Amino acid sequence: MTIRIVTICGSVRPGNYTRMALNVATEKLNEAPGVVVEDIRLEDLDLPLPGLPAKNPEAIARFQKTVSEATGVLLASPEYHGGISSPMKLAIDNLGFPSNLAGKPIAILGVAAGVIGAIKSSEQLRAICAHVGAVPLPLAVSVPNIQRTFNEQGQCQDPKTEELIGRSATTLLDYINNAVCPKISLEALLREQEA
Ligand SMILES: Cc1cc2nc3c(=O)[nH]c(=O)nc-3n(C[C@H](O)[C@H](O)[C@H](O)COP(=O)(O)O)c2cc1C
């Protein structure tokens, strides 16, 4: 069975550090057998503010469909002013009501320049995900001092942080493999028996 993971980077700043951290998590996802990663590039989507018409409705529909078909989602957000980034919130606001995130397991990866890390934004993201009916997973990975942890080429300078970021990927896959897939197989088995 193919496991489809959608990743969304909540920073659209050229050269942003959230993307660098997300790249580490994506590498980990790509190492796992049977996993297909679909990365959403918010900078290319031109998402409308809530209530305004979309300039490119087809792109928004594609975005929603991609998320609706995902087995799980990895959300990576920078901490901006003690909360999630506005691009990340706009992405979630454009995922429909009821949300296409509903029922999806969500791994949260938070990135901050400050020493405290992305605690506030990660908690906020967890609350928003739960509010729209998604299943935010218990381990949220928060990376502090991000601008000292990665160099400008996007290479992580600290093996422990690299391992921590990787756990955002493995937590998601472990949940899918251990909690979601057995349920899917059991359902398939029962349906086969009934047929
Ligand atoms: C509008 C804005 C607000 C920010 N607020 C915070 C903050 O509250 N706490 C913090 O640690 N870093 C803050 N930062 C710094 C970001 O965490 C930093 O830019 C980091 O590299 C992650 O963002 P990036 O992925 O856009 O690079 C802020 C940056 C911006 C652009």
Could you walk me through the main structural features you see in this protein, from its secondary elements to its overall organization?
The protein contains six helices and five strands; from the N terminus they run E-H-E-H-E-H-E-H-E-H-H. It is of the alpha/beta class. It has a single domain, classed as 3-Layer(aba) Sandwich (Rossmann fold). The protein has a five-stranded parallel sheet with strand order 2-1-3-4-5, with helices on both faces. Strand 3 (72-78), helix 3 and strand 4 (105-111) form a beta-alpha-beta unit. Helix 1 (17-31) crosses helix 6. The longest helix has 36 residues, at 159-194. The chain is globular and about 60 Å long. The mean pLDDT is 95. The chain binds flavin mononucleotide. The site of flavin mononucleotide (FMN) has 16 residues, from helix 1 and helix 5. Its cofactor is FMN. InterPro entries: Flavoprotein-like_sf, FMN_Rdtase-like_dom, NAD(P)H-dep_reductase. This is NAD(P)H-dependent FMN reductase.
Tell me the strand order in the biggest sheet. 2-1-3-4-5
What is the number of helices?
6
For the CA atoms, what is the radius of gyration?
17 Å
Number of domains: 1
Instruction: Give the total of beta strands.
Output: 5
Approximately what portion of the residues adopt beta-strand conformation? 15-25%
CA(first)-CA(last) distance: 21 Å
Order of helices and strands: EHEHEHEHEHH
The name of the CATH superfamily reads: Flavodoxin domain
| CATH class bucket | Alpha Beta
CATH architecture: 3-Layer(aba) Sandwich
Find the structural class using helix and strand composition: alpha/beta
